[in-house]
Amino acid sequence: MKLFGIAGWSGSGKTTLLAALVPILIERGLRVSTVKHAGHGFDLDRPGKDSYRHRGAGATEVLIISPERWAMIHELRGETEPPLPELLARMTPVDLVLIEGFKSAPHQKIEVWRKANGKSPLFPDDRQIVAVACDEPPPGCTLPLLPIDDADAVAAFIVAHCGLAGDAAARRRA
After folding, report:
1. What is the rounded distance in angstroms from the CA atom of residue 9 to the CA atom of residue 29?
2. Strand 70-74 to strand 61-65: parallel, antiparallel, or no bridges (unpaired)?
3. The domain 2-42+81-173 is classified under which CATH number: 2.40.110.10, 1.10.3720.10, 3.40.50.150, 3.40.50.300?
């Protein structure tokens, strides 16, 4: 299972790029999953729903299943947020896991950078950033630059960088 990150400041376009990448990578024959780090709390269910009531009653984990999907909600209840490797170990193996966020985690990643966002680039302080998807080149960048609005070009970079081109072709022949 290959890991590759999409990192950048809030408002840079990480989610937009990731959502465009997934169908392109699937079309290339890859099985893709994603991990999203939320810098703030989030909820998957709503007040009044049974699963919401189960969590409210104090359950540590609530597993919800239907004919279309299943999800598990794990309440930390004061525990430390688990490290990324522990979370990845719980996932079904796929060809590629795209990781949004986790800026300081030690996996290779593309930085999404927009000049208009007004934030300094991350790449000078993160050796795991291997390319920058941008609207214009960030100052002092010597890494490969990818057009932020060309998901096909970004997908091609990720496939080549992760060595996945041959894997997908082999699966299509099988």
Report:
1. 30
2. antiparallel
3. 3.40.50.300
C-beta of residue 2 within 8 angstroms of C-beta of residue 95: yes
Read off the pLDDT of residues 69-90 as tens digits, 9 standing for 90 and up.
888 888 888 889 888 999 999 9
127 token code pair: 């050796």
Query: Which amino acid, 3?
Result: L
**Residue 35 has what DSSP assignment?**
E
What is residue 8's predicted lDDT score, i.e. its pLDDT? 94
Q: One-letter amino acid identity for 37?
A: H
Q: Of all helices (H) and strands (E), which one includes residue 109?
A: strand 109-113
Q: What confidence score (pLDDT) does residue 39 get? A: 64
Q: What is the mean pLDDT of the chain?
A: 89
Residues 131, 132, 135: CA angle, nearest 5 degrees: 155
For residue 95, pLDDT over 90 is answered with yes
Partners of 64 in beta bridges: 71
Name the more confident of 49 and 107: 107
pTM of the model: 0.86
